[in-house]
Amino acid sequence: MAATARNIEPIVGCSGFMTLQTHMLADEHRFPDSGGALSWIISALAISTKTISARLKRARLEDVLGEVGHDNIHGEHQQKLDVIAKDVSIQVLRGRDGVAVLGSEEADDLLFVNTWTSDGSRYAVLFGPMDGTSNLDVAGAVGTIFSIFKIEPESSERLYPGRRQVSAGYVLYGSSTIFVLTTGAGVHMFVLDSSIGAYIRVAESIRLPEFGATYSINEANAAGFPRGYRQYLQQCRDENFSSRYVGAMVADVHRVLLNGGIFMYPPTQKSPGGKLRLMYEANPMAMIFEQAGGVATTGDQQTLDIPPSGLHQRVPVVLGSPDNVADLQECLNE
Ligand code: FDP
């Protein structure tokens, strides 16, 4: 793993002044038959995430930090902001043309909404409204992740493999609010300009560096990782990699997307099938990474090819630069 021989420069750039809304209108030209429902759905996500961003900024002042007092479907202590983020997202999304199915990390089951668009298209929107909740009380970075599928007209299926996503994205609520989006033609990044209330495009067609000398993993779980992961981590330490772990997937993955490197949440003793959720965490990030020239795998197969077995299914997650993931894969295959 000779770091000097590899491209480690972030490749981002953009031209012109473009809001998320204008970007989506321009993007619609790729689908001349579309009635614009996807743009409406993404515009709903823009509104809900702006609202969440505003609530987060005032969280301590409005006393909305801390736990609700009961657990969610995953047995985790639900935070007040988990509930606020879910409610805001559902309120905004369920009124949009074309949203037929909603699924959220904080809801036990899929929610069916009876809406149709004039062109008959219907979509499922699956999302993790508040990612990285352990950071809430300490004003650390958190995020929202979403995945959008088109529902086949004659199909009774409501969950599809990630390869069928028509769009995916995340919002990072950090020192600024960042919206990262793909609709299958590259990955684009927008920053919320709160003075005008609009997401402004700051990078077009992001390309992940081929390699990055940084790994992101909860190393405290290392004793329970499969041997290949432990061996790869040793290799990274031997080669003087940096370790970076925020504990919010969106923040950790965003660093890797821009700077290169690798994010891993392997099987652990506590979660032998992995901790992160396929439908609204692993899949959307996998689509973004593949669209940006990166790799997304569970260690056994490409994430986007996994047939879903349920809304809250968990999988091991590896997302990263091609060279990093290839080096990990060698260790896993030994
Ligand atoms: P959280 O439980 O705090 O909401 O999937 C949720 C997630 O955070 C990810 O955002 C994060 O990458 C991971 O779990 C953190 O898990 P560990 O605390 O086990 O490292």
Textual characterization of the structure:
- The protein has helices spanning 20-27, 37-57, 59-62, 80-94, 227-238, 249-259, 278-291, 322-333, and strands at 11-13, 67-71, 77-79, 99-104, 111-112, 122-131, 142-151, 165-173, 177-182, 187-193, 198-207, 214-216, 242-243, 262-265, 276-277, 295-297, 314-315, 317-320.
- The protein is globular and about 55 Å long.
- It has a 9-stranded mixed beta sheet with strand order 1-11-10-9-8-7-6-4-5, with helices on both faces. It has a 5-stranded mixed beta sheet with strand order 13-12-14-18-16, sandwiched between helices.
- With 334 residues, the protein is of the alpha+beta class.
- It is 29% helix and 27% strand.
- The structure holds 2,6-di-O-phosphono-beta-D-fructofuranose.
- Residues 131-134, 218, 247-249, 275-276, 281 line the site of 2,6-di-O-phosphono-beta-D-fructofuranose.
- 2,6-di-O-phosphono-beta-D-fructofuranose is lined by residues 131-134, 218, 247-249, 275-276, 281.
| SS elements, strand count | 18
Strand order of the largest sheet: 1-11-10-9-8-7-6-4-5
Taking pLDDT < 50 over at least 5 consecutive residues as the criterion, the unreliable ranges are 1-5, 7-11
What sequence of helices (H) and strands (E) makes up the elements? Answer: EHHHEEHEEEEEEEEEHEHEEHEEEH
Helix percent reads 25-40%
Radius of gyration: 19 Å
Our estimate of the beta-strand percent is 25-35%
* Overall mean pLDDT: 90
The coarse overall form would be: globular
Bound molecules: 2,6-di-O-phosphono-beta-D-fructofuranose
Distance between the termini: 17 Å
